[in-house]
Structures are given as C-alpha cells and as structure tokens.
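Moderator note: this is an archived Q&A kept for reference. The question asked for a predicted structure of one protein chain; the sequence and the answer are reproduced below.
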Amino acid sequence: MYRGNTFADFVNVGGTRKKDVLFIAEAGVTYHFRATASSDSPYFVLRLGPAAPNESPETATEITGANISITGQNWTASNLSEGHPTIWYEWTAPNHGLIAYQNGTNSSTLVAHHGRIPTISSNLAYSVSSPRPPYVATNVAVTAGVTYYFGISTSPGTNVPFALNFHEKQVALGDLSGALLGGNTHWSLQSNTFFSAPHALQAGPLQPSQSAFIELVIYGPGTVSFRTRITGTSGAMTLAIGNAFSGITSINEYSGHHAWTPRAVTLSSNFTVLRWTMFSRGSDSETATGWIDNLEFTSRPPTPPNLSIRLVSRGSPVLGLQIQAGRITTIDTSTNLLDWMPFTNFLSLATTNRYLQIPPPTNVPTQFFRARVVPYP
C-alpha cells in the first residue's frame, strides 16, 4: 500500500505479507494498493470509516442503566486477522440482581466475564455461541459494584447490536458483603433453615442445570470450617480452592441429599480464593437446594520475627530481621520502651533475612527496636 501521485514518489504506508492492514487515511491523499495471490482471482476488500474504539476489554465502551440497547461497529476493527473481530462493552452492576443480555447478528459469538481480581474464574454463567440467532443469556446473577465485560465477535459490520436488561434482587450477605456472587441465582442469608441461629446462607431451589456460586478471598494460612446441607438427590456443591499464582489448586465436592455436615479445609497459602458452587444435576422438574452455615476462618498464628543488631567497626549499627513469607513485618523504635514509633516495614514473598543499616542515635543516649507482624485485614 502506497501514497503518492507518481510511481517514483510512492511511499509505503503499510502492508507486506499480512492478510489485513490497518492504516489512518488522510483526507485528500491518494493511496495505491497492490494485491497479489497464488490464485487467479486475488481477493481485495477496502473498509473505510472511523476507527472502532472498543476492540479490547481495556478499551471497552462503558454502558450504564438497567435497560440498554446499543449498536456498535467493527467495520474498521484492527483485529480482522482473528476472523470475526470483537468489540467490547463494560457495565457495572448498580446492585445485586439478574441480567439478560443478547446479540442478534448472524455468525456471532457473545462472551461475558466479570472484572473482579483475583478470582477462581472470570467467566459468567453463559458463553453463547450458536449458528442461529438470537444469542440470549438469561437469569445471570451479578454482584453489586462489580464491572462486567461483554465481547461480540461477528463479521465486520456497521450495525452490531447488543442489549442488556437488569432486574434488581434483594440479597442479604451480612458480614460477607464483599463476596462475589454468580450463576443463575444468588446465595443469600435467610432465617428459615440453619444449623446455628439466627441464619444461614441458602442457594435455591435450583432448577435442573442451574447453579449459584459465592466467592471469598481469605488472607493468611489457616483453617476454614463450615457446615453444608443439601436437599434433593440431584443436588451437589463444590468448593474450588485457588490462589493468585497457580489458579485452582483443588476442588472438593459434597454431593447428594444430606443433613448438616461439618467440613474443614486447610489453607497453606498467604492468599487464597474460595468458591462454593451449588448446582442441580436433575432432570424434568426435580430441584435442589443448598445451605452453608458456621462459616469461620481460623488463621494460623504468625511466626514471631527474629530481630538482631550488630555493630560494624567504624560504621553504623546493622539490624538483622528474619521475616515470614507474605506477612508485613513492622520495625518500631523507642527511646524509653514505653512510647513506640513505626520505623519501617518489610514484606517478602519468601521467608528470608533482611538487613538494614541504621544511623546511630545523636540526641538520645539509647535507642530501642522491636519487630512485630501486622495482622491480616
């Protein structure tokens, strides 16, 4: 692809062996295109128009409201080499509730995920891909304040529709208000069925193939204990355990109809994501309901930091500190062992030794230091 008025003046402005080329066209400038192919009939298409601004989740177009109908374009999308270029929208849930979303163009794929990090999985309940429109996902649970991303992959066009409808739902979570919810319905606190008064979490009744999950982030190694109950032989509950580095590390399953049963899992990481998912494997009209109660995390006591000090000849004193992986350790200083002031903080991904050269006291006869582990939030 060249610009210029004569062959001698041609300047290459893009394109070599690539299938698709994106370039900024300037008004009044003449462009020349050369297409070559191994077949007798080389295929050439020129798409001219404004650039698509929302070709990635990072540049997604923000949409707001409860009932949204919008039309976008991927006619000039730069990711044509991927086949059907994708355009993205982002929407933040104003409250807990259920959404339905759809895209009605031919040969489309509609995907959706949430933006909460870290997480066990960013996918929503549905990834819709069908040879026939309309492409509709209904009864998808969303969490208040969480941003969701919707990607539409379709043949290049100037009229790519997308619609989203939100219905608010009252969900009580108590101390678990920061949990991530998803699936086809919500986990919620209720006071009709519990092991220990006054309430327990409940998901359901779930229709066949429906699911509901609740996801929590746990800081620090320790033990998570809880009780489960399921009614309905088709019911099953899983607990997926993961962390920020290696994804899902294990999945525990508690299946079938059972009364209140104590459970416990040991967490060794300093940062763990837990997701409980209740679902129904039944057919026809069989339903299933699940409950969680007595959910409690008991953290492992931190390893006390080991603090030492040594004098270097003709130099300043050096503090030596052994710190525990993943725990913030604070060094405080005092002149009287009564009034302490923070001096510095240390954080390491591995248990290690740290050394710090400190200036000798000038205006006070004695200076004391202590080390302490900062509690998890």
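Archived answer notes: The chain has no helices and 28 strands.
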